């Protein structure tokens, strides 16, 4: 998992940088990913020739992910291409992960020296994995959720750039902030062994969103200018359910990798 961890650190930081949505942020993301991968690999002592080759090839997949997902979020088309680029890159790294060097280097020496909480000194490989999953769940998972919504039509592809009519996201505010917080809480509680408490977070979200979903059914159409014509409870419910399940699956998959 060492190669995958290092790549996800670079991908997560790149997605954080381009979250601004500006063209400059997009170009910066293409620079941040390889820089973060190189620095992380150097600090963890993962720089043998198989590591360099694998991470170099993986960065091509990362660049494809950044470019394709950025275009899809701009025009709403070809969402599956971006998802496939990320999935194939991650699968390839896991498939050949036996050739990765054991993490150590300056990171390992610092962990052995630092008096971190816990009864045992954390292993560099685990530190890299946890850091990678946290960064990935903050920004990259948001992109995945949006791409899936575009792929199934819960977000309307022809209205992404300048939506002429309301989108379901207009009804459910704060999703881009609540999603990362929710995933990090699930991941943190799961790592602490409180899986039951993590399930309460999932249940609480449904209860808190229910009034907004219900209101979308009452406020669709009509002469009231504050209402959303053409946007009914079915649209908002589909958006909420699909987006939530993709977000939860991402968090649970991260927890499975971390454990």
TrEMBL record:
It comes from the Bacteria. The chain crosses the membrane at residues 35-66, 78-100, 127-149, 184-204, 239-258. Keywords: Membrane, Transmembrane, Transmembrane helix. This is Membrane protein. It comes from Intrasporangium oryzae NRRL B-24470.
């Amino acid at each position: 998992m060492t190669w995958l961890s290092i790549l996800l650190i670079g991908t997560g930081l790149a997605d954080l940088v381009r979250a601004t949505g500006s063209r400059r942020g997009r170009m910066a993301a293409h620079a941040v990913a390889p820089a973060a991968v190189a620095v992380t690999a150097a600090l963890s002592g993962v720089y043998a020739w198989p590591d360099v080759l694998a991470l170099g090839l993986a960065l091509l997949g990362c660049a494809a992910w950044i470019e394709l997902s950025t275009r899809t979020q701009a025009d709403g088309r070809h969402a599956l291409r971006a998802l496939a680029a990320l999935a194939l890159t991650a699968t390839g790294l896991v498939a050949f992960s036996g050739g990765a060097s054991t993490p150590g280097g300056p990171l390992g020496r610092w962990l052995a020296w630092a008096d971190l909480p816990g009864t045992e000194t954390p292993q560099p490989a685990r530190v890299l994995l946890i850091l990678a999953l946290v960064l990935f769940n903050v920004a990259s998972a948001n992109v995945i959720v949006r791409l899936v919504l575009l792929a199934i039509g819960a977000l309307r592809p022809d209205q992404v750039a300048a939506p002429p009519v309301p989108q379901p996201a207009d009804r459910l505010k704060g999703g881009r902030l609540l999603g990362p917080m929710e995933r990090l809480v699930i991941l943190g509680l799961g790592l602490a062994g409180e899986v039951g408490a993590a399930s309460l977070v999932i249940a609480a979200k449904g209860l808190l969103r229910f009034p907004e979903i219900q209101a979308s059914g009452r406020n669709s159409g009509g002469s009231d200018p504050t209402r959303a014509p053409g946007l009914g409870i079915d649209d908002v419910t589909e958006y909420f359910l699909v987006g939530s399940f993709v977000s939860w699956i991402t968090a649970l998959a991260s927890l499975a990798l971390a454990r």
